[in-house]
Design a protein that fits this description.
442 residues, alpha/beta, Glutaconate Coenzyme A-transferase, seven-stranded parallel sheet, 24 strands, 19% strand
């Protein structure tokens, strides 16, 4: 069944059903999905119907983390679908760690390079897009990330035109790029993050003390970034160049705290690549020239990031050892998330004139396990090497490791560990560094 959409100044657009569109995907293909809040679930459901009918096999899926059902990672489709995401979200975490799905480590800024340089040859790209403008251009809305590269390089490109996808300024795509178009009005996934805990409020205050008026900032999502955002309400003329943002930063944008006035590039603009938040976030970026949703190759390029002076990159960690090795993608051998863009923003902020790289986290997990450790758990991934570690922040303070030796770092890290863990860490440091340790001061 076909339907049509007519846009002023454009030829008629012909739509096909989701089942017809995915019928052209070949077995043994690598498939890109638009990600995070903007997953094309209507096409995934159609692919599941093909799989259930025994009509397709050996499809490999690539994407950033996705929200909502992820049948392409489930044991029931073993041998038919295989998840190989660039970032692991809660919906696939258990299946990845059980071996039914997999994680492909990559700096998110380089994910597009896997497509553009042919390391992954895409058989198909499945993306949600906005309604077209008068020039036949569509926006990838809340999920630009590496989807632009996927649309450029895939053998088959299927677009889902969805009125709920905001028309975001930035990197647009021509309708001419699409082989098939499908209509859908499924709302984008929204996320409302919990109010920060007292611990997160303290961490937010310690981070905010490192941010000055006129700085350009980057941070992620969740209660901790929102806690930091809540502490920045008295700041002035902040800029935002980030992978993504959510409601905490939106409040700062609407209040004028974030206005980009001091940015050297994209002055007066908010720059991001993907979003996850409330409907207010998605509505705000719709046809808003203040917001540029850009290819991840641009947002995460350290040389681009560094062009804005006083860049403050604020990221988190699963655990950090006393020498500054930062693990953020795993808990021991168990994959928790991914490399993300942490290293890219760490390096960009370090290269920025007056910039700072900040790693912020609670000193203990929700279950009371210490996150500052003498050595990382066996199998834990080092996302940010100790040579790149600068400011480390917990609820107990902030320390700068840059220019410090291993023993100096250990003293500083122990000083911001949970008080009940400090004696243990001190004893383990003594075992590591020898008798000089207790006579060593900073």
């Amino acid at each position: 069944m076909h339907s049509a959409l007519t846009n002023t100044g454009m030829k008629e657009i012909r739509f096909v059903s989701a089942d017809e569109a995915v019928s052209h995907i070949k077995s043994h293909s690598h498939i890109h999905l638009s990600s995070v809040a903007s997953v094309p679930h209507i096409l995934i459901q159609a692919l599941c119907r093909r799989a259930d009918a025994g009509d397709v096999t050996d499809l490999h899926f690539h994407h950033f983390h996705t929200e909502g059902p992820a049948p392409y990672s489930e044991p029931r489709y073993e041998g038919i679908f295989f998840e190989q995401g660039f970032f692991v979200g809660p919906n696939v975490r258990a299946n990845v760690n059980a071996g039914y799905a997999d994680y492909l480590p990559v700096h998110l800024g380089e994910s597009q390079k896997l497509y553009r340089d042919g390391f992954i040859k895409l058989g198909a790209a499945l993306v949600n897009v906005s309604r077209p403008d008068a020039n036949g251009m569509v926006s990838l809305g809340t999920s630009v990330d590496c989807s632009v590269a996927a649309v450029e390089t895939a053998e088959l490109v299927i677009g889902v035109i969805n009125p709920n996808v905001p028309y975001a300024h930035g990197d647009l795509v021509s309708l001419d790029r699409f082989d098939y178009l499908v209509e859908d009005d499924t709302p984008l996934v929204t996320a409302n993050f919990a109010e920060p805990t007292p611990t997160e409020v303290l961490i937010g205050k310690n981070c905010a003390a490192l941010v000055e008026d006129g700085d350009c900032i980057q941070m992620g999502i969740g209660a901790l970034p929102n806690a930091l955002a809540a502490q920045l309400g008295g700041h002035k003329n902040l800029g935002l160049h980030t992978e993504m943002f959510a409601d905490g930063l939106l409040r700062l944008i609407k209040s004028g705290v974030i206005n980009g006035a001091c940015k050297k590039i994209d002055t007066g603009k908010v720059v991001a690549s993907f979003l996850l938040g409330s409907q207010d976030v998605y509505s705000f970026i719709d046809d808003n020239p203040m917001v540029l949703m850009k290819d991840i190759a641009y947002t995460n390029d350290p040389f681009v990031i560094a062009q804005n002076p006083h860049m403050k990159a604020i990221n988190s960690a699963t655990e950090v050892d006393i020498t500054g090795q930062i693990s953020a993608d795993s808990i021991g051998t168990r994959i928790f998330s991914g490399t993300g863009g942490q290293v890219e923003f760490v390096r960009g902020a370090t290269m920025s004139k007056g910039g700072k790289s900040i790693t912020a986290f609670a000193s203990r997990t929700n279950k009371g396990k210490n996150k500052i450790v003498s050595v990382l758990n066996p199998g834990a991934g080092v996302v940010t090497p100790r040579a790149d570690a600068h400011w480390i922040v917990t609820e107990y303070g902030a320390v700068d490791l840059y220019g410090k030796s291993l023993q100096e770092r250990a003293k500083l890290m122990i000083s911001i560990a949970h008080p009940d863990d400090r004696e243990m860490l001190d004893r383990e440091a003594f075992e590591r560094f020898g008798p000089h340790w207790h006579n060593f001061s900073i």
